[in-house]
Amino acid sequence: MAQVDTDRFLKDLNELRKIGAYKTGVHRPTYSPEDMESRRWLMERMREAGLEPSIDGIGNVFGRHPGPGPKLLVGSHIETQNHAGWLDGALGVVAGVALARAGLPVDVVAFADEEGHYGSFIGSRSLIGLLEESEIDSLKNRYHGKPLREALREAGLEGLPRPRLDPARYKGFFEMHIEQGTQLESQGLRAGVVTGIVAIWQYRLIIEGMQDHAGGTTMAERKDAGLTAVRLLARIDREFPMLCGPRSTWTCGRIALDPGAPSIIPGRAEVLFQFRDIDTAVLERLRECLQRVVQEMNRTERTRTTLETMSESRPAPCDPAMQAALAAAAERHASGQWQHMPSGAGHDAQYMARVMPAAMLFTPSIGGISHHWSEDTKEEDLALNLRILADAAEAYLRG
Amino acid sequence: MAQVDTDRFLKDLNELRKIGAYKTGVHRPTYSPEDMESRRWLMERMREAGLEPSIDGIGNVFGRHPGPGPKLLVGSHIETQNHAGWLDGALGVVAGVALARAGLPVDVVAFADEEGHYGSFIGSRSLIGLLEESEIDSLKNRYHGKPLREALREAGLEGLPRPRLDPARYKGFFEMHIEQGTQLESQGLRAGVVTGIVAIWQYRLIIEGMQDHAGGTTMAERKDAGLTAVRLLARIDREFPMLCGPRSTWTCGRIALDPGAPSIIPGRAEVLFQFRDIDTAVLERLRECLQRVVQEMNRTERTRTTLETMSESRPAPCDPAMQAALAAAAERHASGQWQHMPSGAGHDAQYMARVMPAAMLFTPSIGGISHHWSEDTKEEDLALNLRILADAAEAYLRG
User: Fold this and answer.
1) What are residue A196's DSSP bridge partners?
2) B 333-372 residues with CB < 8 A to A
3) CA torsion through residues B181, B185, B189, B191, sign
4) Which of A122, A241, A386, B124 is buried most, with the most CB atoms less than 10 Å from its CB?
5) A368:B252 CB<8 A
6) One-character DSSP codes across A88-127
7) C-alpha angle B371/B372/B376, rounded to 5°?
8) Does the model's pTM come out above 0.95?
9) Closest Cα to residue A348, out of A157, A82, A115?
């Protein structure tokens, strides 16, 4: 059994935490000086662990194992959301270094911009050939608008090659990550073997009515776009539970009424609505329900509702053999204290799953908090999951 | 029967329309150079009609009839919403001048800032002693923030007295106004005798839940403030129709979800909700229902809803004898083409009604449009309503 140095692993995590430290978390937005410092720090750790480090033209840091034989790819991302946590991403990268240090034949990767400061998974998509130069030309930072090209130049990445992964080199990809929810914590569990990453189907509903004076227009005359939005969302609230899967989620994150004044009947409403599931059949059932509710609103309401598809990603099921290896290792190290579970959030693993077997291991998140500086996980859970990952990797490589 | 000069009335309205002309409407925000020009123009028209004009320290223009005997007060406001219509307010003021010109014993008034650029009915409230100096100190323009004191100084009104009306001088107050709705037009009617001005009861609902990741948090764990807002408003949509009066209105003009991002479960929601009716018993019934719905949400939801009262105005019923005079005149001039109706919008008459009998006469609004430059009414309807108003005023004075 591989002997991982959990003390060194925790020491590395705590050292990385100092780069861009913010309260008990970190602030390392993609391509910021702190982010680039953390990438250089990582390349040093890779070298120490016997890997050959490099950085590519989109900022992916890669540590290549020099030896022969089948390999695993292990990693996650290293930049963070603004003023966010110390483990989201960093955990999976530092875990990869720990596996290399323990002598396992792994390449380690830190994908650039998983957190989407500039785009959607541009690091992992670049590695599998799904990022065109024209997309790089068009992207801008979503907070301050700086063009991606300018950010790459300032970070010293301009002109570097963007090599593609050779999937034939790997038996699979492992990503260890914090759960970002409370499923493990609330059940007193210490590890989660991920069954797959859910797809997110996202829509914009535009409701057009008639803006009118809230005093002068009788109830019977109104074309109230806001009221249609309420009725539509209330209908979804009744219908979706009868059609969803056991772990489906659906969310309305925004309702914007125009003009939004207390004495004006809203003439227009915009609703952002999404649902997530790992099963395409469930997703299709929910989409059909949404379409029917819109159709019904257009039959019964005096407004006009239009449904726009913003994105419909595909679910990424985790590889059964890799899941089995993780499950066996979890049972060995934490008998009865782990479960299978889907990932409701997106991860780089969903793109790696397109070119090789992929799997994920979740650690508990204290209070379910992520994308906030107070994000945390107990050190004994971090150490436990590193042991599970190392054993699973070794067993899967052997198997 | 009083002989009003409807041609001269329409000529005055069209002349006033040139001051601050904007497309087919006007732009005369309170205390703007255009607004002050229109007030000086009005004082000239008052003088021509035999009235003694003055302007007070808040901008009210007053035309005092010099003769003996019982008087009526007739008027409305003369400033406009931004880029708004030519008749909203101006109609009632110019109608007052036309009545004076026809020899009726009327004082004419143009109340300042009915449109609320700086405050709420500051002109009419000043005249009945409900506007303190401290409120004048505190008010600012709601669009550009200029303090009211500064605007008054620039308009040359600083230091002028703010006299109070002597209610004993009047038998009542008449205000002619555009309907600002489509009730008259949709029924092919040409005049509306107003039964009263509705009260507006306005509330803010604050819903506190828990902000969470839309992927990581299961449906069963969520404390979705936006979903509570939807359920609460859907419940009101079901309950209010069983409790309301025949002309009650209720409106949710704003739903703000925080943070308003597609993949974040809203941790907080703010809802602006109001209802209007002329009957206090109905208003109280609706308020009790709203309170019960909030109580029920706090019983069944995992969020916490708080109901804040923003304002609860009082309804202003119109004087029965004045209504009867208007109704008789309407039947004489437009038999079968008029109706009794409440005013869903607020008007200066609601403050005059606190100190003397008051009544209103509505002309149709083409397409129900107001607060927009395309607002309009047919000239024959304007002339007709002037005749109705003049006859009603004469009959009521006699009665």
Assistant:
1) A317
2) 343-346, 368, 370-371
3) positive
4) B124
5) no
6) TTHHHHHHHHHHHHTT--EEEEEETTTT-SSSSSHHHHHH
7) 95
8) no
9) A115
C-alpha–C-alpha distance, residues B196 and B213, integer Å? 50
A81, A183, A230: which to substitute to probe chain B, counting the most B Cβ within 10 Å?
Answer: A230
In a domain, B279, yes or no: yes
* A277-292: pLDDT as tens digits: 999 999 999 999 999 9
Residue A274 and residue A371 share a domain: no
Which tokens go with A220?
């019977």
Examine the domain organization and report whether A342 and A239 are in the same domain.
Answer: no
Q: What is chain B's alpha carbon radius of gyration, rounded to the nearest angstrom?
A: 23
What's the pLDDT at B335? 98
Chain A residues with beta carbon closer than 8 angstroms to that of B368: 212-213, 216-217
- The closest CB to that of A251, out of B179, B265, B310, belongs to B265
Q: How far apart are CA A165 and CA A270, in angstroms?
A: 41
% pLDDT > 90, chain B: 94
Rounded to the nearest integer, the mean pLDDT of chain B is 96
Q: Mutate one of A81, A198, A218 to test the B interface: name it (highest B CB count within 10 A).
A: A218
| Residue numbers of the domain that contains A264 | 199-312
Radius of gyration in angstroms for the set of CA atoms belonging to chain A, rounded to a whole number: 23
Q: Is A272 on the interface with B (CB under 8 A)?
A: yes
Shared domain for B213 and B224, answered yes or no, is: yes
Closest among A235, A211, A172, A167 to B368, alpha carbons compared:
A211
